[in-house]
Amino acid sequence: MLFMIKCKKRCSETRSELLWDPCNNTISASLSYFLLFLKKFSKAEQAAHWALQNDDRPAIKIRLAHALLLQGKYEEAEKLYQSVQLAKESGGQDAVKLILDDFDKLEKFGITNPDIGKIRKLFAK
Q: How far is CA 73 from CA 41, 66, 77, in A?
């Protein structure tokens, strides 16, 4: 019994250490992106929020905006898209191109929403 208590404590400590590991932010960001393609938009939103706790890269904000948009939360999504509009990703890719490329990929997989057209028009100006 004492062994089980020690194991539970060790697992709990290890888990809490892993929760704040920067690598996990990358995993959460990636998970958020992949969940979009599985049409699990609320889970994608959760994963993006989790990743944003320690990493505010534009790509993560964009994935969060996608998840919100695809759940019909247009106003929240639009604010996020506009907040990253002038940003560049670490590889030099600008945020608007990343957003529009993501939309193309999502639509290729049959994931559509009328609000995607509104965001496209927003960036066409």
A: 11, 10, 6
